[in-house]
Design goal:
The chain is of the alpha+beta class and 276 residues long. The chain has ten helices and nine strands. The two termini are 40 Å apart.
């Protein structure tokens, strides 16, 4: 590929309404070098394409492809640059101290690159949730699991397995979700009400019911949406009634669950068949 034909740099950034995440940053760089700088936050990065070379606290590191996770701690000087003419495509999460405490900075400096497929997969899932407005409960749940995995690497903390209290906590969380279907609830608030750690709450629920709590909540909302649509209500009205962010949010989840759009599903009440 000729130099003049290289794809242009592209960047997107936003601040999601998810506690612990200060910023989401997606970028494709074809020829870029960061000068030495520091962040006030933790920089959690995955690559989707290419290679990156960086110095952290005067020690050089590199990562290539989609197998690695990079974690750059706050307050420590680092730089970064492209390695090949194709550049690199990356996705960053800037995390505050509620996710990782300052005491772990030294361990992150010693080993800033993790070869961890599970962690990388969970970060990818979180980015997918953050792209869509209205999926805050899912994003908060996925961040909690990422935090646990990072503590496994930096703090040698093993995840706590659900014990005899699992069924009780799961039932209490399901009852809480059922009572808040329309207005929703954050994972942090649910954990505070039930006096349980957020990640432990997720594990107990999944062990008991076979699916994570955010998936359960979405399914309950879809069930209510189906009934309202067959009663003749408009999709836009249904979306806000059952707790989705807007009609686009409803459309995305409804189509994935039911295989057709809410508008087409609504036409079923006339008895006429529909085709996708």
């Amino acid at each position: 590929m000729a130099t003049g034909d290289r794809p242009r740099t592209s960047i997107s950034a936003w601040r999601p309404p998810v506690p612990g995440i200060a910023e989401v940053f997606h970028a494709h760089f074809t020829d870029h070098a960061y000068p030495a700088h520091t962040h006030d936050t933790w920089d959690l990065m995955i690559l989707d394409h290419g290679s990156v070379d960086f110095t952290l606290d005067r020690r050089r590191h590199g990562a290539t492809g989609t197998a690695s996770v990079l974690l750059l701690p706050p307050g420590v000087p680092h730089d970064g640059r492209t390695v090949t003419a194709a550049g690199f495509r990356k996705r960053n999460l800037y995390l505050d101290d509620s996710v990782l405490p300052q005491r772990l900075v030294g361990r992150a400096v010693d080993a800033p690159v993790f070869s961890d497929g599970l962690l990388r997969y969970r970060i990818d899932q979180l980015h997918a949730a953050l792209v869509h407005a209205g999926d805050g409960f899912e994003a908060e749940s996925r961040l909690s699991l990422i935090r646990e995995r990072l503590h496994f690497h930096l703090d040698a903390l093993q995840p706590r397995a659900p014990g005899r209290e699992a069924n009780r906590l799961a039932a209490e969380l399901r009852e809480l979700l059922d009572s808040r279907i329309h207005v929703g609830i954050s994972l942090h608030d649910a954990a505070a009400i039930l006096h349980a750690h957020p990640t432990h709450l997720i594990r107990c629920f999944k062990q008991t019911y076979g699916l994570p709590p955010h998936t359960y909540l979405t399914g309950k909302r879809i069930d209510q949406a189906r009934r309202l649509l067959l009663d003749g209500h408009r999709p836009a009205e249904v979306a806000t009634t059952v707790g989705f962010h807007d009609q686009a949010h409803l459309n995305r989840h409804f189509t994935r669950h039911v295989g057709t759009t809410p508008a087409r599903y609504k036409r079923l009440r006339t008895g006429a068949p529909i085709s996708s």
